[in-house]
Specification:
2 domains, mainly alpha, 62% helix, DNA polymerase, domain 1, 19 helices, sphingolipid metabolism, 442 residues
């Protein structure tokens, strides 16, 4: 077929396509009705059965329509560009129920637009089906667990590669060169992070869809820190402040005798970093992990999740979390623990990734339109959000309801364990009785 847009197909191009897909007998019919690429893309099953085309055999209609349907699915973007399918045919799109969704001319049961709007959409775009899928939350936790271990190990490696402070002095930086070093600032940054984390825990405890929030938080945090591992390994920046005592570990020349010892030491140091969550108030001190700031990532991620999953009228809370975020960033720079570019890149990557993820999750039409691209570039999103069909509403549960749910869950687990134990005992008794009967028969 000609390597060009299907909207530009001529009558001869359509004839070639019919021959390639095994519908040669319809070539003359399509030529007679002047069906070019645009018309071909907009054909419906009713058009094939109409008096105009007059295809009499049902089998021919179905086989031809299947081929056209596949062509339409492969060229959805062209249909959007032609205006044949409108993403938002009404300015009040999300105020319609599923059965009230407007149409722009494709009203049959098998039409493309009908399928396009088949995703569940409730009032205000909120999801109509939100299963907790706790197992996905555990998978995302395992993903974050693995990434944090990789990050800790990479931090040990980059610490050994830190440039000599005498040979490579701190780089020029507008902020660091004009703001004096504050010794206690970095500890204050971690205190602000602890405050944000405590608020986020409270939101998780009372939010009705806490497991969806958890898997999103784990997936996004793991992805950002995985990107940070790459940037740390690629380029080693010089130490940003002269007050930092950063020296690589001494490495024994006899590689054969020290290889396993060195690996063990690296793993042990990585465990110390991982156990302390990379926080200086936990006794963790590292160098070389500058591009980009992990503390800024944590502050920004917590801030965005708190503001996203708390009600909009809580202006005081949202303002407070943003202030905490900004103060935390200021303390990082005031401590001269990171360059300004480290903080800027960390804030930008974290915020953009958060917004990109939630834009796709809250607008399923966009996700469906770019589904192939989403699977390739954002596989975690495709997996974790496969059962979410809209915006997650900010609904909360009372403490009494949470306790009741925990008690019910505990009872269910107890009954499940008890029934499994009883089943095992009964199966053992049956086996013993069968053995005794066989012995008696002998």
């Amino acid at each position: 077929m000609p390597a060009k847009n299907i909207a530009d197909w001529t009558l001869s191009d359509v004839s070639k396509w019919l021959s390639e897909v095994g519908h040669e007998k319809f070539v003359n019919l399509f030529l007679e009705h002047e069906i070019d690429g645009k018309v071909l893309l907009t054909l419906k099953e009713d058009d094939l059965k109409s008096k105009g085309l007059n295809i009499k055999k049902l089998g021919d209609v179905k086989r031809l329509y299947i081929s056209i349907k596949q062509l339409q699915r492969d060229n959805m973007t062209v249909l959007f560009d032609l205006g044949y399918i409108d993403l938002f045919p009404s300015s009040n799109f999300y105020n319609h129920h599923k059965h009230d969704l407007p149409s722009t001319g494709l009203n049959t049961e098998g039409s493309i637009e009908h399928e396009f709007y088949s995703a569940s959409v409730s009032e205000d775009g909120h999801a109509s089906h939100l299963p907790p899928e706790i197992w996905k939350a555990f998978i995302s936790l395992a993903y974050l667990f693995i990434v944090t271990w990789i990050t800790a190990f990479v931090m040990v490696i980059v610490h050994d590669r830190v440039p000599d402070m005498k040979k490579y002095p701190p780089l020029p930086d507008i902020f660091l060169d004009n703001v004096p070093h504050i010794p206690w600032a970095f500890d204050m940054c971690e205190v602000t992070g602890t405050i944000l984390f405590a608020i986020w825990l409270i939101v998780l405890i009372f939010h009705k869809y806490r497991f969806i929030l958890l898997r999103r938080f784990f997936a996004l945090s793991g992805t950002v820190f995985l990107l940070r591992c790459v940037t740390m390994l690629i380029t080693s920046l010089s130490v940003p402040g002269a007050h930092l005592q950063c020296e690589p570990r001494t490495i024994v020349d006899d590689w054969s005798s020290s290889a396993y010892v060195d690996l063990y030491n690296k793993i042990a140091m990585a465990y110390v970093i991982w156990r302390g969550a990379g926080m200086s108030i936990q006794g963790v001190r590292t160098c070389g992990d500058y591009m980009f700031s992990g503390h800024t990532v944590a502050l920004t991620m917590l801030n965005f999740f708190i503001t996203e999953y708390t009600p909009t009228p809580l202006y005081f809370l949202h303002t407070f979390t943003w202030m905490i975020n900004m103060f935390g960033i200021f303390f990082i720079l005031a401590a001269h623990e990171h360059y300004s570019i480290d903080v800027f890149v960390a804030f930008y990557i974290t915020s953009r990734l958060f917004l990109y993820y939630h834009t796709l999750a809250n607008n399923q039409a966009l996700m469906q339109r770019d589904s192939n691209r989403t699977r390739i570039w954002f596989p975690l999103f495709s997996f974790f959000e496969s059962s979410v069909d809209g915006i997650v509403p900010n609904e909360y549960e009372s403490p009494s309801l949470i306790i009741c749910n925990l008690v019910c869950t505990g009872k269910d687990i107890w009954h499940l364990v008890r029934s499994s134990v009883c089943f095992r005992k009964s199966s053992r008794n049956v086996n013993v009785s069968v053995k005794n009967n066989t012995k008696k028969d002998r």
